[in-house]
Amino acid sequence: xxxxxxxxxxxxxxxxxxxxxxxxxxxxxxxxxxxxxxxxxxxxxxxxxxxxxxxxxxxxxxxxxxxxxxxxxxxxxxxxxxxxxxxxxxxxxxxxxxxxxxxxxxxxxxxxxxxxxxxxxxxxxxxxxxxxxxxxxxxxxxxxxxxxxxxxxxxxxxxxxxxxxxxxxxxxxxxxxxxxxxxxxxxxxxxxxxxxxxxxxxxxxxxxxxxxxxxxxxxxxxxxxxxxxxxxxxxxxxxxxxxxxxxxxxxxxxxxxxxxxxxxxxxxxxxxxxxxxxxxxxxxxxxxxxxxxxxxxxxxxxxxxxxxxxxxxxxxxxxxxxxxxxxxxxxxxxxxxxxxxxxxxxxxxxxxxxxxxxxxxxxxxxxxxxxxxxxxxxxxxxxxxxxxxxxxxxxxxxxxxxxxxxxxxxxxxxxxxxxxxxxxxxxxxxxxxxxxxxxxxxxxxxxxxxxxxxxxxxxxxxxxxxxxxxxxxxxxxxxxxxx
Length: 483
Prior knowledge:
By secondary structure, the chain is of the alpha+beta class. It has helices at 14-25, 31-51, 55-58, 85-98, 117-129, 137-157, 168-182, 187-199, 216-236, 253-257, 272-276, 290-303, 319-325, 334-337, 341-351, 361-364, 367-373, 382-389, 425-441, 446-456, 459-464, 467-472, and strands at 74-75, 82-83, 105-106, 110-111, 310-317, 376-380, 398-404, 413-415. It is globular, with a radius of gyration of 23 Å.
C-alpha cells in the first residue's frame, strides 16, 4: 500500500513570497530606471500605433464581441475603443508586440518586458477613469519598472525555452503580481494571483519555431498580460491561491514542466532590468539579429552591384541566435521572416534598410532574397556566446563577411553592442525619440503629434499627468471610426 498523502496546507513557496513582497512594497528610487522607463513607455506605445497599419494586427483588436464596450473602459491607444481592462490588456499587448519592435531582455530566457504594459496601462486607465484608484504616469512608470524586474530576474538564470515553453508565461506572472498590487492587494492576494499564474503552466514555444512559426507569436504576449489582469481581479474577489504551486511533488510546476529543477534567483530584486533593458531602435527584428543587420547595412554599398558574384556570406553569431533564428528553406509568412537571421541580413545587404514592410509578401517575392539566403552560413563565435551571458557585458554580437567568386571579399564587419544597448544610451535615446515621433505620425495628424510630443518632452508634466488624461491624448481626432 502507498503511504498516505498529508493534507496539511503548506507554507507558500519562498519565491512566491519574495515576488509578492517586492510587488507590494518596492518603490523604485533609481533615476536611471525611472528615466529609462519613461522612454520605454513612449517606445512601446509608438510600436503599438505603428502596428495598426497592418490588417493582420488590426483584425485581432476591438471588443471581443460587437458592442462590448464600456463608457469608462480602458482606452486602446490609436483607436476610439474603451474596453474592459482584461480585453483592453489583450488589445494593447498585441499591438505593442505585433511588429517585434518593442524592448527586449536577453538572458537564459528571452523576452520583451514592455509586453506587461498591456495589462498595466489598461488597468491603470480603467481604475483612474472609473475613479476607483487614481494613477499618474509616474505611478505607471513605477509599475513598469517592477514588472520588468520580475520578468527579467526570473529569466536571468532560468531557461524556459530549453524545456519547450514560451517566455510569455513570465509576462503572465509579472502582470498578475503587479496588477494585484495596483488593485491594492495584500501579500496574500498577490501570492494567490501568482500561484494561479504558475498553475496555468506555460504556452508551448511551437509557434515561434520552424516549421510552425506564425502570427500567434505576435498576440501571445497580449494574451498573457490580459490573463495576468484577469487573475489579479479574481484574487481580489477572494479566489484562493495554491501555496506550493511550484514545489509540490509530482503535481507542481517544477516536477511537471521543469524537469524537477527549482528556479534560481541569485540577483536581488530592484531596478536592474529596466536599467539594462534593450531597445529596438533601428529595425523591427528579433533582437539577436539586430547587430547582424547593422553589419549588413555597412556592407550594402560594397555588395549591391555584385550580388550575382557572391560565393558565400558568413555570419558569426552567438549560440542563442543559432538556436532560434538560423533558418533555411521556405519562409511562410511575416512572422517566419522576422525570426530568420539570414532573411534579415539579406534584406540589409540588398536594400540597405530594414522595415516592417520588408517582411510582407510583396517584398519576400524578390528572387534575390532567397538566392542570397542560400549562400549564407551561420557559425557560432565562442566569445560572442560567452559575452552574451556575461552580466557585465551582455553583448549581442554579430559579424558579417561577404566572399565573392573571384576569391576577393569584403572586410569582416562586426558590431558587438546594438544601438539600443545600455552602453550606447547617449547615441540611442535621441534616435528612440525620432522613432516615437515617426510612429506617432503613422497614426495622427501633425497637430496631435505636436501636442503629444509637447507633453512627453516635459518629464515633470508627463509624470504628473493622470493616466486617463494621458490615454485620451492617443484617441485619433481625425478618424470617424477606429479603422
